Amino acid sequence: MKTLYLECNMGASGDMLMGALYELLPDSGKDAFIKNMNSLFPNQLMLSTSPCEKCGIFGTKINVVILGQQECPTADAPQGHADGLHQQHDKEHADGLHQQHGKGHADGLHQQHDKGHPHSHLHASYPQILEQISHLPVSASVKEHARAVYTLIGNAESTAHHVDISQIHFHEVGTLDAIMDVVGCCLLLELLGPEQIIASPIHVGSGSVRCAHGNLPVPAPATAEILKDVPIYGGSVDGELCTPTGAALLKHFASQFTPMPPMSVEQTGYGMGSKDFDTANCLRAFWGNLSVLPVPAPRQLPGHPFPGDMIPNVSKETHPDYYTEQFHSLDQILELSCNLDDMTPETISYATNLLRDAGALDVYTTPINMKKDRPGILLTVLCNVSEESRFSRLILTHTATRGIRIQPCYRRTLDAQFRKISTVYGEITIKISTGYGITKCKPEYEDVAAAARQCKVPFQTVYAAAVAAFHKTL
Question: Considering the chain, what is the average pLDDT of its residues?
Answer without folding.
Answer: 80
